[in-house]
Amino acid sequence: MKKFIHIDMDCFYAAVEMRENPHYKTLPLAIGGPPDKRGVISTANYIARQFGVKSAMATGQAIKLCPNLIILPGRINFYKQVSEQIHEIFRRYTNLIEPLSLDEAYLDVTNSRVFDGSATLIAQDIRKAIYDELNLTASAGVASLMFLAKIASDINKPNGQFVITPNEVNSFIEGLELRKIPGIGKVTAEKLKILGFKTCLDIKKSNLPFLVQKFGKLGISMWNKAHGIDDREVVSDRVRKSISVEKTLNEDIYDWKEFTHHFDILYRELEQRINRNDAIQLIRKINVKIKFEDFKQTTLEMVSSELNYLAYMDLSKRVWDGRRNMRGVRTIGLGTILSAKEPIEKQQLSLMFD
Ligand code: TTP
Ligand code: MG
């Protein structure tokens, strides 16, 4: 049985802008092109949505619905950076991450050992980390089938999550309206309705040849989904290259003993992170990164195939004695460089030829 989490940020671009400029929080806000250039709305905050402002709507139309609407042009590169920070959080829980857009991703947590493998608790923790560290809210869906996880993430949006447990899957699917299935747009939903198909139960009661005749590939896909079959897998965007942890201290420190106190906590955190990601055998190098009060930073690394407390301590002491020059320490980072896992195809090929 698989466990999937679908994460979707709440009014993502608008949420980032509200974080950067909190006075927008109480005002209707949209990101979009200017009305005089036939601009469209990318997204709107939830206040603007109460006026009917929506993604893909012409900006001119949006202003008619909400005359006080604040419209910002948007800054995609900044949203990309934030998206990367969100992915950094995801990677604490699993390497199997498939981004659907900047603000949306599937995570396969079937083999994650965090929280005893409870996908519900993992989803909660991811949302908490996003909130605590990035000051943004996310919604999540949890299910044993990918398409259900995606549908579930919308149910308690914003800032909520919804779990479909394995024994709820059947009844959930039967009651599921077809227009909620990703890939079924307005036009198809209308066509389905005319033929008497409103829910997955209607599809289940129909027959496959008829569905294929009327809808082609989509017919097969609907039939499968209605029967709880979705054998797609999370295709991860990249192979992880490093795992590291770091902490910026509340106050700069000048005392070695105090340093070792923070070091110990970080080391344990790194150990957990490595174990959670099943990465112990992939370690090739270890490093220590220290940032000083003047914001200059230094990194020292060594070749190592294991996580070794004394080796990390040794690297730290060398930085402390040799490179600190009386400066206070502001940030401590402990990291590993990993070798890439062999792609699965390659493993299978070599098995075939062995
Ligand atoms: P969505 O997740 O569809 O929307 P959202 O995050 O703004 O709001 P929700 O709380 O309903 O999830 O899209 C994510 C971002 O992608 C969105 O902030 C802006 C951008 N986007 C566009 O630029 N054009 C579009 O038509 C849509 C739908 C989104
Ligand atoms: Mg979103």
Largest sheet: 5 strands, mixed
Which bin fits the share of residues in helices? 40-55%
What is the global morphology?
flat
Heterogens: thymidine-5'-triphosphate, magnesium ion
Report the count of strand segments.
12
Order of helices and strands: EHEEHHEHEEHEHEHHHHHEHEEHEH
Strand content: 15-25%
Radius of gyration from the alpha-carbon trace, in angstroms: 25 Å
Low-confidence stretches: 342-354
Average of pLDDT: 92
Order of neighbouring strands in the sheet with most strands: 5-6-1-7-8
Report, as a whole number of angstroms, the end-to-end distance.
Answer: 31 Å
Number of helices: 14
Which structural class should the secondary elements be placed in? alpha+beta
What descriptive keywords fit this protein?
354 residues; alpha+beta; disordered C terminus; binds thymidine-5'-triphosphate
In short:
By secondary structure, the protein is an alpha+beta fold. It is built from 14 helices and twelve strands.
Give an account of the 3D structure.
This protein is an alpha+beta fold and 354 residues long. Strands 5-6-1-7-8 form a 5-stranded mixed β-sheet. A hairpin with a 2-residue loop joins β5 (97-101) and β6. Residues 342-354 have low confidence and may be disordered. The protein contains 14 helices and 12 strands. α4 (76-90) crosses α5 (119-134), α10 packs across α11 (217-226) and α12 runs antiparallel to α13 (309-322). It has helices at 12-20, 46-50, 59-65, 76-90, 119-134, 146-155, 169-175, 186-194, 200-205, 208-215, 217-226, 256-276, 309-322, 344-353, and strands spanning 4-9, 29-32, 41-44, 70-72, 97-101, 104-108, 138-143, 161-163, 242-253, 283-292, 297-303, 329-338. The protein is flat, with a radius of gyration of 25 Å. Bound molecules: thymidine-5'-triphosphate (TTP) and magnesium ion. Thymidine-5'-triphosphate is lined by residues 8-13, 42-43, 55-56, 101, 103-104, 157-158.
